[in-house]
Amino acid sequence: MSDEMPTDLEVVPNPPPLPDRPDDGHKGLFGRVLVVGGSDAMLGAPVLAGTAALRTGSGLVQLALPRAMVPFALSITPELTSLPLGENPNRTMLAEAANKADVLVVGPGMGTARLARLRLWRLLTVDKPAVLDADALNLIAASGEWPATTSLRAVLTPHPGEMARLMPLIGGSDPAGGPPRVPTDDAGRLRVAVAAARAFKQVVLLKGKRTVIADGRRVYVNTTGDSSLSKGGTGDVLAGIIGSLIGQGMERFEAASLGAWIHGRAGEIAGKKLGPRSVLARDVVEAIGEVLRAM
Ligand SMILES: NC(=O)C1=CN([C@@H]2O[C@H](COP(=O)(O)OP(=O)(O)OC[C@H]3O[C@@H](n4cnc5c(N)ncnc54)[C@H](OP(=O)(O)O)[C@@H]3O)[C@@H](O)[C@H]2O)[C@@H](O)CC1
Ligand SMILES: Nc1ncnc2c1ncn2[C@@H]1O[C@H](COP(=O)(O)OP(=O)(O)O)[C@@H](O)[C@H]1O
């Protein structure tokens, strides 16, 4: 990975507007999102992602998650539908659901066990746009190389810890010989996001204060958001928002940029109501409506 700052980038100053929502539309027009995630220890992550997608305007959101969790997940958000996953890899049913969807959100709370890996590898062969988050990224990092055969057109949404795990795949290392680390300054974060986008040929969103979105040619640095978002589950909310915008027809870089902006504003609004310390990820989901109404 080069230490040079790329000089051939278009810096996008503002996120794009929301896509149109025709008055005579129906749920089939506004995107079918499939969220694949959840594991014994983590139910909240896929539910937060799916609920955020519904709040952002998706017509239909289905959660593919372990069978035992389905009743609990649906009792939190009954507007979600489910694909119960059993102990076998269930890869055919999963691939069928993925093929019916307009966009996939893969990884929130999925864990890194064998079944999760098998399911992810099956999904990587589906020709769909996707948001790859959390454990989807950890599984790819653990495999040691970017899956060159993937047909997914993805937005990767690593936090700096996940990005550090991916860095060996783009030739990133710590000069001192320790584990790779993501720089904390703006220029360094931008360099890493652009290098990853170019190496993987995907859209990369590097989370944190001043989230960076890069597609290899363009870069957008988000300015919304504060410490109201510094709590478990808010990244899952972001994955759902971006998936929803892609499902509503937005191009991936634009969806990731606008999604980061909406997510940050929703965090700020929730923080004003409750105080930044007390905001939960679900409060960020609840604030999405206020953000969208004002746009
Ligand atoms: N309710 C639920 O169901 C929830 C489920 N969740 C699910 O949990 C799973 C594991 O995801 P996870 O992010 O919690 O663990 P992991 O990837 O090991 O990250 C921690 C490591 O990364 C680093 N690090 C993190 N952020 C950083 C930053 N901004 N800046 C810098 N470093 C940062 C951090 O480093 P440290 O600060 O400790 O030095 C640490 O090493 C995943 O499936 C997710 O979806 C969660 O979404 C929560 C709610
Ligand atoms: N101080 C902050 N300012 C702006 N955004 C923040 C801040 N703290 C966290 N965030 C945002 O909150 C989200 C946290 O995501 P992540 O670390 O993946 O959480 P989780 O995995 O628990 O859902 C990211 O979008 C990140 O950019």
UniProtKB/TrEMBL annotation:
Alphabetized, the UniProt keywords read:
ATP-binding, Lyase, NAD, NADP, Nucleotide-binding
Binding locations of AMP? 207-211, 235
Keyword Nucleus in the entry? The reply is no
Substrates-to-products reaction catalysed: (6S)-NADHX + ADP = AMP + phosphate + NADH + H(+); (6S)-NADPHX + ADP = AMP + phosphate + NADPH + H(+)
**EC annotation from Swiss-Prot or TrEMBL:** 4.2.1.136
- GO BP: metabolite repair; nicotinamide nucleotide metabolic process
Region (Disordered) residue ranges read 1-26
Q: Which NCBIfam families match?
A: yjeF_cterm
Which principal EC class is assigned to this enzyme?
Answer: lyase
Q: Which family does it belong to?
A: Belongs to the NnrD/CARKD family.
Identify the taxonomic lineage of the organism of origin. Bacteria, Pseudomonadati, Planctomycetota, Phycisphaerae, Tepidisphaerales
Q: Give one GO term, molecular function aspect.
A: ATP binding
Q: What biological function has been recorded for the protein in this entry?
A: Catalyzes the dehydration of the S-form of NAD(P)HX at the expense of ADP, which is converted to AMP. Together with NAD(P)HX epimerase, which catalyzes the epimerization of the S- and R-forms, the enzyme allows the repair of both epimers of NAD(P)HX, a damaged form of NAD(P)H that is a result of enzymatic or heat-dependent hydration.
Name the coenzymes or cofactors required: Mg(2+)
Show the PANTHER family listed in the entry. ATP-DEPENDENT (S)-NAD(P)H-HYDRATE DEHYDRATASE, ATP-DEPENDENT (S)-NAD(P)H-HYDRATE DEHYDRATASE FAMILY MEMBER
InterPro entries to which the protein is assigned, alphabetical: Carbohydrate_kinase_pred_CS, CARKD, Ribokinase-like
Domain YjeF C-terminal positions: 10-295
Q: Spell out the subunit comment.
A: Homotetramer.
Keyword Iron-sulfur on entry: no
List the Pfam families: Carb_kinase
Q: What is this protein called?
A: ADP-dependent (S)-NAD(P)H-hydrate dehydratase
Q: Where does (6S)-NADPHX bind?
A: 45, 109, 159, 236
